[in-house]
Specification:
GO terms for molecular function: protein-macromolecule adaptor activity. Keywords: Membrane, mRNA transport, Nuclear pore complex, Nucleus, Protein transport, Translocation, Transmembrane, Transmembrane helix, Transport. It is a multi-pass membrane protein. It is found in: Nucleus membrane; Nucleus, Nuclear pore complex. The protein has 691 residues and is mainly alpha-helical. It has three domains: 22-35 and 333-397 and 561-689, no CATH class; 39-312, no CATH class; 444-534, no CATH class. The protein has 25 helices and four strands. The strands form two sheets. The protein has a two-stranded antiparallel ribbon with strand order 1-2. It has a two-stranded antiparallel sheet with strand order 3-4. The radius of gyration is 33 Å and the shape is elongated. The chain starts with 21 loop residues before the first helix and ends with a helix.
Amino acid sequence: MSAFAPRSASQAGAPPTQSNLDILHSTFVANASPAPSQEYEKLCRIVLQRRLRNLFGLSALAASAALAIAIFDPKELPASLFNIVPLVLFTPIAFLGALPVLVLRKRTLTTVRPPLPTLFARFSSLRTRTSSVPVLIAYLLAVAFLHISYIWAASWASEDAQLGFFFFHQGRDAWQLNERRVVLSLLHVALALSATVQHVTQDRSQVVFDDESSATIPTRLASRGRPRLVAAFGSATKAWVASWSTYVLFRRPVLRFFLAHVLPVWTRTHLFSMMRYNGAMSLTLAARAFSSTLFIFLVIEATHVLFEVYATQPMVVSKFGSSPNQVLLSGLRSSDPYFQQFTFLELATLTLRDASRRQAIFKDVRPGSTTAGAWAEISRECLLLLGTELQRAKGRGRLPDTSSAFSPASVSSASAGQASDRPQGPNRAAIKSGDVFQPTRPSLFDKVAAAATSSSSASLGSSPAAQSATAALTTGVAAQRAQQAVSSALNVATSAISRVPAVLQSSALVPSAVSDAAVAARKAAEAAPPPANVADVAGVEHSIARFVPAFLRGGVFDVAIEYRVTNCVKRRHEVVCAIQALSNLVCASLTEDPYGVAQRDIPKILEAFVRFLSVVKSLRAELEDVAEQVSGGQEEKERARKLVQREVGEVEEALQAGAKAILTEFAEYLGEFRFPTQIAAQLQLLVDWGG
């Protein structure tokens, strides 16, 4: 029998039809059931180990292809098309150059870490991050192996034996320093330093789960590899132009300085070749500098692309465990966000495509046990994630303080807030399938209250103190002390003025507490620093920004749009998967749930979706306004708008689609639900207008 059948006398234990959303008001709740095993992580590691072997083979193949491109010489056609021997001999050394990058990515694997706020903060992280030194060592090792493989492969292919040694001997002359080898070595060391800076500033240790969860590995490699290939050619061209220009300009002054002031006289016999021939005029050396630079960038970028694709390819491993439902639950409760993303991906996929797994979740019921059934536990973990991210989006990137979350004062205030937020039984409404927008006739008391409220709100919002305080609160995030003062003063003023009639607000009968609060709010707003001069970081950056010209300050000290957006939706991909999983399970429960365990939680899930949707809509509107103010022209503004659409708009679309799917599936039983009036009104909009 369906959970939405009419109530009868025999249904003593019928499931509730009213929403009860305590789980979103108290995010930090300890698990009621004992912690499951880490079986999901163990199964994932087995799959990842097999993928690592494939990754090694493809990395060697990519290194061999890049080496073939690097040693190709158009002047030696068609012989240069058959450089098989140098490729066979030096491809293993080129693979050893890709190996340190693979080890580095595997050892420093991380996820869901937002970018640093400003360009200055990203560059200053080179000094503060403890991982900078291991990254530098890894890239130096990689470049050393790639340098050796290229030098000797090019020497073998061109039959130039002198290219591979730092010193060469001609006839009866002394051993001469090989300028070509020195120049290429210095160039490659500079490339290693540049790769280190790029790795740390762009946080390339983080893996990003894209939206191509249903695509195969070759498809994802092609989609990710094409832009990286173009980027590798561009980076190689820029690095070659910069390095060769520096070499041409500073070769003669540097050589003269060393000969005159640093090196002893006896070394000049070993530098006779450098003094006689100018290496900056060698077209062959310039071509080898570019080809070796391109070779290094191609190998490094190919290694990064291969690792990111194999490290984020979705997997279905829970069915291989002893208890598939408990394996899924162990992945949802994993302490590592990396494995949690795999779990949410698998949960969203199997709830959409696998009817047998959905039925197994519904039938896994344990009455009288300390461990609840599979549906209760899985839906609880999904709602906990939604609750945490709802609080993050509501706080615009900041979660509530957990240090005092369990103090008596916080518990009492939280319960009072919940009681005020959720109307009681008589104030709950149902969703109707007819026209619910019937005009109601307001009473006299309603008219008087509306007039007083609108006049007091308008008088308070039009004051200069309120406007400046609002600007300081919405724009200057880092000015925390000024924000607290303005916020507390405005709260006192608002609560006091709202109780005073509009006629008396401008007279001398206003209580002193109201006037003092307004004066405090005005002083706090005037004392706060201008929002444009306040960055969203603290420390030395504030002091340095004062001495930077205004036209340079924006690009270096402005808070990036990526930082603002990703902080507010930090776990966007997991949230979308959790919404899809809940929606799929609830919609399938109408025909596949024999006990009605999922249907009793429909009011709670719909209320969670609606509350999250209202927060996401306001967040998207704010971020779109921020995107319109991004400096850099229309191209940067368009990029910012696309970022907001991808990160925030995807969550909004998933919430709307999930709520509409549930409402459509259970349209026949909508009258059985009871919601708070505000939630019912928003759900009614979804039923009548689709949003």
